[in-house]
Design a protein that fits this description.
2 copies of one chain form a homodimer. With about 170 residues, chain A is mostly helical. The first copy, chain A, is built from 9 helices and no strands. Chain A binds a DNA duplex (30 and 30 nucleotides) through helix 3.
DNA sequence: CGAGTGATGTCACCTGGTGCCATCACCATA
DNA sequence: TATGGTGATGGCACCAGGTGACATCACTCG
């Protein structure tokens, strides 16, 4: 992460990372499957927590509330490390391959939530749509949250974005 | 594409593709920036057509109608080559790196539509949410459409998915 | 003390991807 | 016809990401 920040992602070689860490290139690849994966070390944890939030919600909760619960869970993790998230986000934004990786992580999150929603009795299509809307709102809110000079809480931004999404689909 | 279908994407080397095409590895990379890009040859065309559909819609149209117009444009292109889309989809589904590429293409589509929506006077957040909902519905409908034994038209599936999304956000 | 086990190093190797220069076909113009 | 320019291709060397196979070393357990 330090090296990525100092010299840029593309300009950093795995050999250099390994050297800085006092290891070998080979050993690096035993810990990380990828050069990219370093930036997504804890992503599955976030996924698990959002899924758990959905599973823990009351059975009668409508889809939008489930999304809200998952976003609240995400908010907790995000607020834990705002400046780190900012650095990480800037690095990811600098490289297309990292954005690709970020997108597939989001997709993985969505499919996990889809499974959880199906397990709660939602139809396949409804579950998929709901989960994807959740990642959509998360993405939009995250873009506003990171590097926000006012340091507005993520939870607030996510709530607003969700409300706006509701308006958009209701109007007309 | 033939080689990807025969031997699988991962097992196919660029040198083999070039040889089959009567070219050199070097020449291949002058036409395609990537080994992956072969599968996404016409993706920018689809993007342009969906953007054009949004721009061509009446000024008074609500967001959901704009999404509908863009999806109709996509439907036209999809129906042109159903079996090809099926093969292509199967190949993409077989490889994570191809899925990553597909996701970033969808994202690029979304940002292009976001720009178009902003140009029509939509707010930044509203535009982003609308565009992402469009790609979401497109994805869900596409998954149902491809390899569907009943050969239901894409337009129908997209319309249904969009209606279901509306229900999901309205309920509660 | 010796065997087994897990983490690391070492090396060879493959493949995707790029820079650089040579070559060749084609085309316009004198 | 000869000449020179231009665009597409080939050839080559090279780098970086990534993997497999084997050696080594530390640590633990009996």
């Amino acid at each position: 992460m330090a090296l990525y920040g100092e010299r840029g992602y593309d300009e950093t070689t795995v050999a250099e990372i390994a050297e800085r860490a006092g290891l070998t290139k080979r050993t690096f690849f035993r810990y990380f499957t990828d050069k990219r994966e370093v930036l997504f070390w804890n992503s599955d944890l976030l996924e698990q927590q959002m899924v758990a939030a959905i599973e823990a919600a009351p059975t009668s909760a409508p889809p939008l509330d489930l999304i809200g619960a998952a976003l609240d869970a995400a908010a907790v993790r995000f607020e834990e490390s705002r400046e780190f998230a900012g650095l990480r986000h800037r690095i990811v934004a600098s490289s297309p391959e990292l954005q690709e990786r970020e997108l597939i992580k989001a997709r993985s999150m969505a499919t996990a939530m889809t499974r959880a929603l199906c397990a709660r009795g939602a139809g396949d299509t409804a579950a998929a749509l709901t989960a994807l809307m959740c990642t959509t709102v998360m993405h939009v809110a995250f873009e506003q949250w990171v590097d926000d000079p006012d340091r507005t809480p993520f939870q607030q931004l996510a709530k607003d974005a969700l409300a706006q999404l509701r308006e958009l689909t209701a109007a007309g």
